[in-house]
Amino acid sequence: MTKVAVIGAGLSGLVVARELESFHSVTVFEKSSGVGGRMATRYADGFEFDHGAQFFTARSPDFRHYLQPMIERGVVAIWRARFAELDRGTIVSQRDWDNDYPHYVGAPRMNEIGKHLAADLDVRRNTTVSMLEREPGGWCLRDSGRKNLGHFDWVVLTMPAAQTAALAPDGSDLHEYCKSVRMRACFALMLGFDAPLPLPWQAALVRGADISWVSVNSSKPGRPEPFSLVVHSTNAFADANISGDLVEIAARLRTETGEVLGESLEAATFYRQQRWRYANADNRDGADFFVDESVQLAACGDWFNRGRVEAAFTSGFGLAQELKGVALR
Ligand SMILES: Cc1cc2nc3c(=O)[nH]c(=O)nc-3n(C[C@H](O)[C@H](O)[C@H](O)COP(=O)(O)OP(=O)(O)OC[C@H]3O[C@@H](n4cnc5c(N)ncnc54)[C@H](O)[C@@H]3O)c2cc1C
Fold first, then answer.
1. Using the 8-state DSSP alphabet, how is residue 56 labeled?
2. Which residue in 228, 224, 231, 232 sits closest to 270, CA to CA?
3. Distance between CA atoms of 236 and 253, rounded to whole angstroms?
4. pTM recorded for the entire structure
5. Which fold has domain 39-111+183-281?
6. Nearest residue (CA) to ligand 1, atom 21
7. b vs e for 275-308, b when ≥16 Cβ sit within 10 Å of the residue's Cβ?
8. Which of 261, 185, 262 is nearest to 230 (CA)?
9. Are 42 and 48 in contact (CB under 8 A)?
10. How far does residue 279's CA lie from ligand 1's centre (Å)?
11. Can you give the residue ranges of every domain in the chain?
């Protein structure tokens, strides 16, 4: 059996691993304690926040087909929100999201999708792969202490472009390609309340401010009752302030959120922030994934296409079909 190492347990990595595991010996390495990557959920003090991906859509038949069993099991559900576009504090348009063009979420929380896909896979959590060493016929993986993590015939890199570049061999096509990709940062604020705020919508796109998005997380299907908000900064604000003091940045975004909502946020009983250094990728044309049969190295991830959940699926699923059909013997 061909031994395959998949580095990263986000959606793209888990899709590759599941597609290949019936035919090959697949080991997934994930640096975090949880799986799902940016399809993430934070729990604290009785509150839950999907502080990464908010929702996703499924345009391609392949993705819709892949989601169907998860919809039937209740791992994926439709979020029927009232959606508003705000220009700072003014509502410029609003409408209901309905079944005609579903906005999907993990249920009862976003990271449930990763957990579901990872079940039955060999996932080594809390394991950061820091080095790939080429050896005859394959690769040796090492952690930051140079500990040997195993020998593999094929390695599949599924992390954001900058992290992929750090592992791709210097001067390789993959390394050069990663360096041409621009990923954008984002700050997330998580706010929990004892009583709901009187907002006329559950999801809002914000213009003319340093925040770009506000969602009532507790309005998504299956979430616990306490009222919770997730706020995202604009990518531009986060890129410009990525090395700034996180507490100060969060205080500024919180003040701005209060102004945009026209509500005092003093009543928040829970308050946390998160810095996403590689949140989204600019849209790009080109291949959906990378394969180099000569050195048995492959890569996938949302950034091959655009920084979206469906792009991560398309990249991982396409790569798996390619590896099944042609390259991986
Ligand atoms: C704030 C935010 C909001 C977003 N909103 C939306 C949205 O509303 N809709 C939408 O469609 N998309 C959204 N996205 C984008 C979406 O989350 C991503 O496109 C998708 O989840 C990417 O999946 P992936 O598998 O390509 O990468 P990731 O999910 O990033 O997976 C990569 C994995 O690799 C692991 N890893 C990295 N380096 C190593 C290493 N050296 N060793 C081992 N493991 C490693 C990481 O821990 C991670 O788990 C958002 C993202 C963020 C951050």
1. B
2. 228
3. 13
4. 0.97
5. Polyamine Oxidase; Chain A, domain 2 (3.90.660)
6. 38
7. bbebbbbeeeeeebbbbeeeebbbbbbbbbbebb
8. 261
9. yes
10. 7
11. 1-31+127-181+287-329, 39-111+183-281
To the nearest 10°, the Cα dihedral for 83, 97, 221, 78? -140
Helices (H) and strands (E) in the chain, counts: 8, 20
d(CA 320, CA 114): 17
- Model confidence pLDDT, tens digit, residues 274-324: 999 999 998 888 899 999 999 999 999 999 999 999 999 999 999 999 999
Pick from 30, 38, 310 the residue to mutate for probing ligand 1's pocket: most ligand atoms within 8 Å of its CB. Answer: 38
In the numeric block, the tokens 């996403």 are attached to 276
| Interatomic CA distance for residues 166 and 74, integer angstroms | 37
Ligand 1 shell residues, CB under 6 Å: 7-13, 29-32, 37-39, 52-56, 128-129, 158-160, 163, 186, 188, 232, 276, 279-280, 301-302, 307-309, 311-312
Q: Where are the alpha helices (DSSP H) in 173-261?
A: 173-179, 235-241, 246-261
Structure tokens at 125: 């959590």
Using one digit for the tens of pLDDT, what is the confidence trace for 34-91? 999 999 999 999 999 999 999 999 999 999 999 999 999 999 999 999 999 999 889 9
CATH of 1-31+127-181+287-329, one of 3.40.430.10, 1.10.3720.10, 3.50.50.60, 2.30.30.60: 3.50.50.60
